[in-house]
Every structure is written in structure tokens, then in C-alpha cells.
């Protein structure tokens, strides 16, 4: 077996001092409304236009993120536009035909190709055929880390060796040292190829978070490692202190952003799950109030074919007319196996 610790130095950088996070403001109570995977105010018009068969708004949105180096937003928008194109391809086919060398269209095409190959039993073979498209996306704008995040996911799905993955990782962090998507891809690679090595995954996540600015989404990476550990049940135990520290770090990040911020919805939904598993009921209630109406498929689609309904049941247990502990069957049942997804690409499959 490959020594995981021998691989970790390639993923780590020296730590630096970060600012102290302010105390979060007291959040308002959550209302009854809830929406699943709601787009933010910038993405929503692009999706509406795409629904009409028009690609101009999507093109302008991604061009703006590229011009302003808004890499986190660009990554999220590319994922959502690719998911929409998977079910409604007409607008995207027109975009590709009209501008085949457009860096933004090529980026969405690379994400879409990975999405289409991912659920297949022949995933590794199909993904190898996608490599030229990812290369084209990376060459379209040398500053952009998002094609490299796609390449990292692609390498995991095609079961590429660790040396090749390290090369991709180094290229990604040269472009954006604290890009959350690339860090998630690296964490998932470690978890996939060294199943049960949760302590090593925590080492990577903790050091990455220590190195990142206080308002970076990378501060939520240890909580993601905690989620993987709490839903896996494999490998040696992780000390409770590390789980609580991971939750505390993500809570400090959450407190830096306003209530009901769509960009933080994924972090806050995942943190609600981790806090409930740690039986930190009041802290979980705080995060639910900060989340507002924004439910996300991940992590709830790991436990139910109805992620919004599952979120609502957890919220009712914590914030309903008789708030209390979350029933164990809502959070402690093992996540569904991948072959139960009936070919769907889930919100966090890659």
C-alpha cells in the first residue's frame, strides 16, 4: 500500500497568520420557506435565458468572472450551467456552434463531458476520452484554476496515479493557492485512494485551512473531512477534538457572512449535519437560522431521494414547535450507495 503520509507534503504549503473572525451577529429566526439549490442573483438570469434557448447571458456571466478573476464564483457557475446543459442542451449547443473557441464555452463543455461520463460503469474509460477537452479549457486562459479543478476530478474518476495527480495539484495551486474547489478535489482524491485514512485527510484539510485567509471557503475544508469521517465508518478513529475543531472553524467562517447568503448555503448545510452528529443542537440551530431558506442537495441527497424533504425534517426537529434533538435515523443512517442513484450525478459526486 502507498504511504499516504509520503504523499501529503506535495499537497501542503507553509502556514501563515490569518485575521481573527468577528463574532457572528444574532441571526433572525428561519421562516417556513425553503428552496433547493437556488441560484444567486447573478446566475439566475443566465439560467432563465438558457431556458429560453439563449446563451448570451451565460456567456456574459462567465466572461465577467474570468475578467475579474472571481474563481470561486466561476467554478460554481460553470458547474450549474453544465448541469442545466445536461438536461436542456439546445442553448449550449448553439453557443458551442457560434463560438467553438470561447474559453467560457470550452470550460462548460469540459465540465459537461465529465458529468456525462461520471455515472457510467465505464467511467474511467469514458473519462480518458474527455482529456483533450479539459486540456483545451486549461489552455484557453492560463490564469484560470477551474479547468484544473475539473482535471483533478477527472484524474480521480479515471484512477490516475498519485504522481500525475500531484502535478495537476501543483499547477492548480500556482494559479489560485486557496481555491476551494481544487482543495475539495484533492481531499476527495486522498479519501478515495486511501479509503479509511481519515487522519491523513484531516491533516491535509487542517493545514490548508490554517494557510488560507479567514474569509476563504477553504476554512470549511476540515468540516468536509469531518463529514466524510462521520458518514464512512471505516478506518481508525479520529479524536473527537478534531471533529469539534473542524466544526468550530467552519462556524467562524459562516459567521463572517450575512444571513441567507447563497454562496454559503453549501457550507452551512454541511455544517448543520456535522453539528447534529456531534449533538451540538444549539450550534446547529444557529447555522440553520443563518442558512435561511437555502437548502442544498449535498449532504441531504446522501440520505434520501428527496433532499429538500430531508432538510425540512431536520429543520423541523431543530427549529419546530418542540425543538430538540434530531432523530438518529435522519443523520446516522449510512449514506446510500452510488448504484442507488440510478445514473444521476449528485451534487457532490465530483
Helix content: 55-70%
Annotation, overall tally of beta strands: 2
- The unreliable regions are 1-7, 13-30, 337-342
Q: Tell me, rounded to a whole number, the average pLDDT.
A: 89
Give a description of the structure.
With 350 residues, this protein is an all-alpha fold. The chain has a domain at 213-350. The chain is 59% helix and 1% strand. Strands 1-2 form a two-stranded parallel ribbon. The two termini are 24 Å apart. Residues 1-7, 13-30 and 337-342 have low confidence and may be disordered.
Please describe the structure with a list of short key phrases separated by commas or semicolons.
59% helix; mainly alpha; 350 residues; 2 strands; disordered N terminus; 1% strand; two-stranded parallel ribbon; 19 helices
Brief overview, please?
Helix content is 59%, strand content 1%. With 350 residues, the protein is an all-alpha fold.
